[in-house]
Amino acid sequence: MADYLTEKFAGTGGTIKECPEDFRVEEIPLYLPCGEGEHLYLDIEKRGLTTFELVNKLAGALGARKQDMGYAGLKDAQAVTRQTISVTGVRPEQAMALQLEGVTVLSARYHRNKLRTGHLQGNRFTIRLRDVAPQDLENAQDILHVLQMTGVPNYFGEQRYGILGNSHLVGKAILNEDYEEAIRQIIGDPSVIRHPDWQQAAIAFANGDLPAARRLLPRGMGTEARLLGQLAEGRTPRQALFRMPHKLLRLYLSAYQSYLFDRIVTMRLASLDTLWPGDLAYKHDNGACFLVSDPATEQPRADRLEISPSAPLYGHKVKLSQGQAGILEESLLSKEKLTRDSFRLTRGLSLEGARRPLRVPLGEATVVTDDSHLILAFTLPKGSYATSVLREVMKGS
Predict the structure, then answer these.
(1) The whole model's pTM is what?
(2) Residue range of the domain that includes 92
């Protein structure tokens, strides 16, 4: 099984994100503010902040309510990013006068509706690869050319699986109703934890010393400390787990959905641009899917990257493919000892599922040299990740 779509070309190796300026992201808006309405759209450049931290800072500085603020997507902290935030009850001159560390307000214009998640076309990336060799420029150019012709494997990638790389295992344990295992994964395996206090807490937990584990957890792990407190008070693992914030539990479940999707991408990597009989093809212009009954008829559209094979984000309502593609999707569920009904959970945690394309178009891709560095620039549609491009370019670094 191929590891990379561009496996015939050597990777560049190198390093990224030595400083936030090495990784620049700019939202491509779905629409521009019209100039009237109650919602003020702020175009913002931030540095070294998550989107959540940005919203908190803006709310405090502007006296705005966080629940009235909107954003189209989440942006990395270890980067310089430009994104739009909507807010109500704030005047343009008030926003433009803000002086916050790591935050620059570039413009402020009114619009009629609140900015919602997904209200963007995509993102434009400019990424510096350090410590590469002179011959890597040609390899990177060839790799980007192949990706523009065939599409980028639409992996979620490791950033979806948390700092220990195991968020999906928490989600899997919840679906399997193995709540003790879910909690073990949340506290973490001492052998992979780097933070010394957290590592000692995980060792104490593994030895059954709940009070010591709770005491040793570092600041910033209050949710985990409360989880251990629930267990120490005699609640069952299930009771303790489901007292955690639902938003966090849904993130764990979503990570498992992502993991299963990534496995299908890998299984179909060698023929990612080829439609199979029974595929549910994804239309890139509007996100709709349709059943492929005659691949030969539809393949020219796939060759033009108008449509692509899709795979499920598994859930209790998601439609699965038919034919060979359907067998692959059903067999993965069976191997995981799950059915679609397994995703029908209580307490507002049910996952309906969706279809997601196995590949996405790569737009406006360039690469140039700058001393011993490469500067990559490209665009991707919303919901896809630059790490999928870097994975192919850098290979195993």
Answers:
(1) 0.92
(2) 31-117
